[in-house]
C-alpha cells in the first residue's frame, strides 16, 4: 500500500537506510518498512503485505543489495530475509533463512554491511554463536573460527574501497570483546579493529574451508598512553571515506570505567600499518610467505603455514593508536553513545568537520 502513513508510536524501529538515488530514508519498524521522502517528509509504508505474517516481525536489516532492497526481521524468533526486485519495488524475488543475518530478538547485538551481504548476528535466540560472516551475494559464504573472539559486541563494519587495486579491498570490523586479563584492575572489555579481504573465499577443501583466511585483529587504543589511562569501551563508529583510501578517517566514540566519554580519530593508513608490519601476538617463529592476512585472489591455494598463523595467532602485537596519539581528540563527562560527523562549509569558505554526539540508548 502507498499513501500517507499514520505513524504508530509503538513501532520498535532501530535500523535505517538512506537511498541517495531516490532521496528516500527507509526506516525499519514492526511488520513494516517506512519510506520517508527527505524533501517533503512524506511517509509511506512499503513491504507491509510481505512482512506481516501473523507473528511479531521487528525489522533489523535494511540494505541496498545489487540494486535491490534487502530486508530481514526477527519473524517471531525465526529470522527471515526478503530480497525485493528493486529498491523501489515491493515484489519479492527471493527468500533467505535469516539466522546469522538478523537476530532472533531485536535487542540482541547485530550488524550488517552490503556489497555482498556481510553480517554478524547470533544463530539462536539465546544470543550464542555471534560472529562476522559473508552470507549472501556472488561470493562464497565465509565465517569465523570459533577461537578468534571472546563474547564480542559488534559496533560497525565498513568496506574501504581501493579504486586502483580492488583485489586488496578490505572489510573492517569494529567491536569490543571480553578481556582475557583476569587481574582486578583490568577493564572487562577491550576494543578492537579487525579486517578481512573482500576477495577471501576461505581455505582449501582439506583445511579451513569456508573460514576467513585473511582475518586479523588489533587493539584499538584511545586515551593517555604515557599514563596508561585508557577509554576501553568502544560505543560507536563513524567512517568518513576519502577518494584516497589511505586518508579515510575513523571517528570512534569510547566510554571509560570512570564515566567519561572520549572521541579518538584513526586513519585507515595507520590501521593498515599495524596489520602489515606488526608481529603476531604469541608467535615466535619466522613469519611465512605470503604474510598472514594477505589478500589472495585464490585464497584456497594459500600455503598451510600462512593460514595456520591466521588460525592460531590472529591478534597483532602492536596496538592501533589514534592520529593524536597522546590524548583523545575530545573528552566529555556526558554519557554519549552515538556519533556522526558532518562536513560543512563555513562563512570563511573553509570545510570543517562537525561532530554530532547523542546520549540516546544503545
What do these coordinates show?
This protein has 362 residues and is mainly beta. The protein has a single domain, classed as YVTN repeat-like/Quinoprotein amine dehydrogenase (Methylamine Dehydrogenase, Chain H, 7 Propeller). It is built from 3 helices and 23 strands. It has helices at residues 48-51, 268-277, 304-312, and strands at residues 15-19, 24-28, 33-37, 43-46, 59-65, 68-73, 80-86, 89-97, 111-114, 117-120, 132-136, 153-160, 170-178, 189-197, 216-219, 223-224, 229-230, 233-240, 249-255, 261-267, 330-332, 338-345, 351-358. The strands form 7 sheets. The protein has a 4-stranded antiparallel β-sheet, with no helix packed on it. The protein has a 4-stranded antiparallel β-sheet with strand order 5-6-7-8, with no helix packed on it. It has a 4-stranded antiparallel β-sheet with strand order 12-13-14-15, with helices on one face. A hairpin with a 2-residue loop joins strand 5 (59-65) and strand 6. The two termini are 32 Å apart. Residues 1-5 have low confidence and may be disordered.
Strand order in space, largest sheet: 1-2-3-4
SSE pattern, N- to C-terminal: EEEEHEEEEEEEEEEEEEEEEHHEEE
Pairing-aware structural class of the strands and helices? mainly beta
Inertia-based shape? globular
Using only C-alpha atoms, the radius of gyration works out to 21 Å
Number of helices: 3
Amino acid at each position: 500500500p502507498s499513501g500517507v502513513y499514520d505513524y504508530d508510536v509503538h513501532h520498535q524501529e532501530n535500523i535505517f537506510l538512506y537511498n541517495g538515488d531516490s532521496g528516500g530514508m527507509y526506516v525499519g519498524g514492526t511488520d513494516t518498512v517506512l519510506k520517508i521522502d527527505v524533501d517533503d517528509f512524506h511517509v509511506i509504508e512499503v513491504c507491509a503485505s510481505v512482512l506481516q505474517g501473523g507473528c511479531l516481525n521487528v525489522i533489523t536489516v535494511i540494505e541496498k543489495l545489487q540494486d535491490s532492497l534487502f530486508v530481514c526481521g526477527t519473524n517471531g524468533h525465526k529470522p527471515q530475509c526478503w530480497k525485493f526486485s528493486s529498491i523501489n519495488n515491493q515484489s519479492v524475488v527471493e527468500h533467505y533463512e535469516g539466522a546469522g543475518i538478523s537476530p532472533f530478538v531485536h535487542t540482541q547485538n547485530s550488524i550488517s554491511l552490503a556489497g555482498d551481504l556481510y553480517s554478524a548476528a547470533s544463530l539462536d535466540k539465546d544470543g550464542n554463536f555471534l560472529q562476522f560472516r559473508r552470507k549472501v551475494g556472488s561470493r562464497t559464504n565465509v565465517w569465523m573460527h570459533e577461537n578468534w573472539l571472546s563474547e564480542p559486541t559488534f559496533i560497525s563494519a565498513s568496506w574501504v574501497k581501493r579504486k586502483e587495486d580492488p583485489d586488496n579491498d578490505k572489510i573492517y570490523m569494529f567491536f569490543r570483546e571480553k578481556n582475557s586479563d583476569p587481574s582486578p584492575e583490568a577493564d572487562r572489555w577491550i576494543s578492537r579493529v579487525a579486517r578481512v579481504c573482500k576477495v577471501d573465499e576461505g581455505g582449501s577443501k582439506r583445511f579451513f574451508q569456508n573460514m576467513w583466511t585473511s582475518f586479523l585483529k588489533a587493539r584499538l587504543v584511545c586515551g593517555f598512553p604515557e599514563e596508561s589511562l585508557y577509554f576501553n569501551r568502544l560505543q560507536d563508529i563513524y567512517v568518513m571515506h576519502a577518494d584516497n583510501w589511505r586518508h579515510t578517517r575513523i571517528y570512534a566514540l569510547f566510554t571509560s570505567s570512570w564515566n567519561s566519554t572520549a572521541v579518538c580519530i584513526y586513519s585507515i593508513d595507520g590501521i593498515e600499518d599495524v596489520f602489515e608490519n606488526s608481529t603476531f601476538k604469541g608467535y615466535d617463529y619466522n613469519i611465512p610467505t605470503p604474510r598472514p592476512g594477505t589478500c589472495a585472489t585464490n585464497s584456497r591455494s594459500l600455503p598451510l603455514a600462512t593460514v595456520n598463523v591466521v588460525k592460531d595467532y590472529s591478534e597483532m602485537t602492536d596496538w592501533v593508536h589514534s592520529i593524536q596519539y597522546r590524548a583523545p581528540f575530545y573528552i566529555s563527562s556526558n554519557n554519549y553513545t552515538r556519533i556522526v560527523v558532518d562536513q560543512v562549509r563555513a562563512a570563511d569558505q573553509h570545510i570543517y568537520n562537525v561532530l554530532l554526539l547523542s546520549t540516546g540508548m544503545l
